[in-house]
Design a protein that fits this description.
This protein is of the alpha/beta class. The protein is built from nine helices and ten strands. The protein has an eight-stranded mixed barrel with strand order 3-4-5-6-9-10-8-7. A two-stranded parallel ribbon has the order 1-2. Helix 8 links the parallel strand 4 and strand 5. Helix 2 crosses helix 7 and helix 5 packs across helix 6. The relative contact order is 0.10.
């Protein structure tokens, strides 16, 4: 079942996902740490901004608003019976999305038969929801200083998303799971999940933890040999690059420890873009200048291994991002590094998947 853009009710558009507003037009996300995730998720029509051109990335999310985001995914129902909540009237804009979220097994009500749609959703709750859409056999220990305070109902979900690389570092290395989640953080988690599953809901596993049969939809298992923060490994034998780790981000801190993945590019399908220093680090692109057309590039991730053939080698201006952010249905990798003694230039190498 491919994800499709859904038309919500007029009231839903006004309250939670107000008006489709393309990410390029948002007036308040430039420079935000989650700008890339917001831009990509918006481009797929899965979230939108407000009538005044803002996205409000740091605004808190209610439970009703989260059901609207889930509704966009058109997940299969694993519970057929509708739930009746005393505080969710059939006349409310979120009535259908609440029912769908409950039927999908991702959300539920409270013991007093309420749903509390206007309650802000916490980080723990958001992590728990997203965790039910992935499958991970590994469970790495989490590094958070407040890990002993993680409630038992959220502990496995936290481990699962940490292992899968969907959540990582927080300020002060403290999870603060009771903190209300923001629009930006929720979109970041959903976008990371959907990138990995290529926007194909037949590859998302939805687990009904309360059903006696434990019914599960189709699976895509995260490979435990990948550390939680490593997206994959790049190999270019011809220039001495052997299983260099790739981490998400193009900031200085990231590319000191691995090759960097441009957040503006996809994780797996399409034009996947990397960057690295041209010297001084264990994992750098110092030998990229020695690459030749026809050389083989191998990229291995949780989602498989692909082989590519180098087809483009050229200098670009440091401000030219066109080859990096271009959406492309052809699977390729794009690699960028500095050119020695040319501070305004970069070396760009592209390789297309071998067919």
């Amino acid at each position: 079942m491919r994800i499709k853009r859904l038309l919500l009710s007029a009231m839903a558009l006004l309250v939670t996902l107000p008006v489709t507003s393309y990410a390029a037009a948002y007036t308040d996300i430039a420079g935000h740490k989650d700008e890339g995730y917001i831009t990509e998720y918006s481009a797929y029509g899965l979230v939108s901004g407000y009538t005044d051109g803002t996205f409000l990335p740091d605004a808190k999310l209610t439970r009703a608003e989260v059901t609207a985001l889930i509704n966009q995914l058109q997940l299969p129902a694993i519970r057929q019976k509708a739930e009746t909540f005393s505080d969710v009237s059939a006349s409310e804009w979120y009535y259908t999305s609440v029912q769908n979220a409950v039927k999908s097994g991702l959300m539920s009500g409270y013991a007093d038969k309420t749903f509390q749609p206007q309650k802000n959703i916490s980080r723990y709750e958001a992590i728990s929801i997203v965790s039910r859409m992935i499958k991970s056999n590994a469970a790495l220990p989490v590094p958070y200083t407040d890990k002993e305070r993680i409630p038992s109902w959220a502990a496995d979900a936290v481990k699962k998303l940490y292992t899968a690389g969907i959540i990582a570092d927080y300020d002060g290395n403290t999870l603060n799971g009771n903190t209300p989640i923001t629009r930006a953080e929720m979109i970041r988690m959903l976008d990371k999940m959907m990138r990995g599953y290529d926007f194909d809901t037949t590859k998302i596993r939805v687990i009904n933890q309360t059903a006696s049969a434990g019914r599960e939809e189709s699976a895509n298992v995260a490979n435990s040999k990948f550390p939680h923060d490593v997206l994959g490994y790049l190999t270019i034998e011809s220039i001495g690059i052997k299983k260099y780790p790739v981490k998400d981000g193009a900031d200085l801190a990231t590319i000191k420890t691995a090759l960097g993945h441009f957040a503006e590019s996809p994780f797996w399908n399409g034009n996947v873009a990397f960057c690295a220093h041209n010297r001084d680090y264990k994992y750098d692109f110092r030998n990229l200048k020695k690459i030749s057309k026809g050389d083989e590039v191998i990229y291995e991730t949780r989602f498989g291994k692909r082989k590519y053939t180098v087809s483009v080698i050229k200098p670009i201006n440091e401000t030219d991002w066109s080859d990096i952010i271009t959406k492309d249905e052809t699977n390729k990798v794009t690699m960028v590094t500095c050119i020695e003694s040319q501070p305004t230039k970069r070396l760009l190498v592209q390789a297309n998947e071998k067919i």
